[in-house]
């Protein structure tokens, strides 16, 4: 029995010691077959290349071209600044390094989640603004007809952003972008009287109402990174209001730790696109804002949104407790988003006054 145990441990030592060293030298070291070494070096090179490529694609795109578009002389026509900025944002979404990544199923895109979340935040703002242009900005009254190009552009941007087969999001989004280009060309033609952009206070309030809800939702999701109990206020302030099913008086809200960075970068993409759109709105709705003395309010909103674009110094989005030892990037982002949202609420109230 003792000899059997001794022989067993001897075989283990041989396998992990002598044989292990022999195997490593034979199959990995200099004595390995040349073909095997070439395969190992090739695989290592491919993996390193994909990692470097993924890091390059994860860098947020440059927005200098979007900013310069607002300084061109052809934005003097009412509505051209907003339309051109929307086109440039879509171009950036599709033509940035790596292109559109949300629906990619091959490496390195399939490993990345921050950039796709950023893309989704930008896309949501593109959808909301294109909807406002179709339903409000380009129509004089509720009974007026909608613009033919805008009516075709808006549904193109609502194609599922994760679809990797028919319909292809890239093709649909680019088609929507081309429809916006057609609208911009007709808008600049002084002989085309049926193509208009109406810069009115009620139109601007319509779009800002959608933005207000988007930012409010993002603020709640970002704040839920630490988890908290919230009082149910769904029916507060509405006498006789009812809802489909009863809800508890207190609700525990917490964003999954696996979704923390996704929500953070979605908010970052939302703020990036919204800041560009508001700069364009400053030009197209300049007289309306001057009349309401609301220019300072718009500039403050843009300032808060720009603060969300500061460089992230940490290699990962940290989800520390509210007053713990570690930082919580989501709560910092929620602070800026909430301040911007509060300023938008004030701006809408200001625009509603005669």
Write structural notes for this entry:
By secondary structure, this protein is mostly helical. The protein has one domain (65-232, 247-352). The chain contains twelve helices and two strands. The chain has helices at residues 2-27, 34-57, 64-69, 80-95, 114-137, 148-156, 169-188, 201-223, 260-284, 286-291, 295-307, 329-352; strands at residues 228-231, 250-253. The chain has a two-stranded antiparallel ribbon. Helix 4 runs antiparallel to helix 5 (114-137), helix 8 (201-223) runs antiparallel to helix 9 and helix 9 packs antiparallel against helix 11. The longest helix is centred in the N-terminal third of the chain and has 26 residues, at 2-27. The radius of gyration is 27 Å and the shape is globular. Residues 14-25 have low confidence and may be disordered.
Mean pLDDT: 86
Adjacency order of strands in the biggest sheet: 1-2
**Which sequence of SSEs, written as H and E, runs from N to C?**
HHHHHHHHEEHHHH
Largest sheet: 2 strands, antiparallel
Number of domain modules: 1
SSE-based structural type = mainly alpha
Gross geometry: globular
Task: State the helix count.
Answer: 12
Percent of residues in beta strands: under 5%
Distance between the termini: 100 Å
């Amino acid at each position: 029995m003792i000899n059997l145990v001794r022989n067993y441990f001897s075989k283990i030592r041989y396998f992990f010691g002598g044989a292990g060293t022999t195997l490593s030298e034979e199959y990995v070291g200099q004595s390995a077959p040349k073909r095997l070494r070439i395969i190992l070096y090739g695989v290592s090179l491919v993996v390193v290349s994909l990692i470097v490529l993924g890091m390059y694609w994860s860098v947020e795109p440059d927005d200098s071209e979007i900013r310069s578009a607002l300084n061109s002389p052809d934005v003097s026509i009412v509505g051209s600044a907003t339309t051109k900025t929307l086109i440039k944002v879509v171009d950036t979404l599709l033509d940035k390094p790596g292109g559109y990544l949300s629906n990619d199923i091959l490496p390195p895109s399939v490993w990345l989640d921050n950039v796709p979340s950023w893309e989704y935040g930008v896309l949501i703002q593109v959808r909301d603004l294109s909807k406002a242009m179709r339903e409000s900005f380009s129509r004089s009254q509720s009974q007026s007809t909608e613009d033919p190009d805008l009516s075709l552009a808006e549904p193109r941007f609502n194609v599922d952003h994760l679809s990797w087969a028919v319909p292809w999001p890239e093709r649909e989004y680019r088609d929507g972008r081309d429809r916006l280009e057609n609208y911009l060309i007709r808008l600049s033609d002084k002989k085309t009287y049926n193509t208009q952009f109406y810069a009115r206070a009620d139109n601007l309030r319509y779009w800002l109402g959608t933005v207000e809800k988007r930012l409010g939702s993002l603020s709640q999701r970002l704040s839920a990174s630490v988890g908290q109990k919230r009082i149910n206020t769904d029916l507060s302030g509405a006498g006789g209001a009812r809802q489909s099913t009863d809800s508890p008086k207190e609700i525990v809200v917490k964003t999954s730790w696996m979704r923390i960075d996704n929500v953070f970068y979605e908010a970052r993409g939302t703020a990036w696109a919204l800041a560009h759109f508001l700069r364009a709105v400053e030009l197209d709705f300049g007289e309306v804002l001057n009349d309401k003395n609301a220019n300072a309010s718009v500039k403050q909103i843009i300032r808060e949104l720009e603060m969300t674009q500061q460089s992230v110094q940490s290699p990962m989005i940290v989800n520390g407790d509210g007053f713990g030892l570690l930082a919580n990037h989501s709560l910092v982002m929620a602070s800026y988003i909430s301040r911007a949202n509060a300023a938008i609420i004030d701006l809408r109230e200001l625009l509603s006054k005669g």
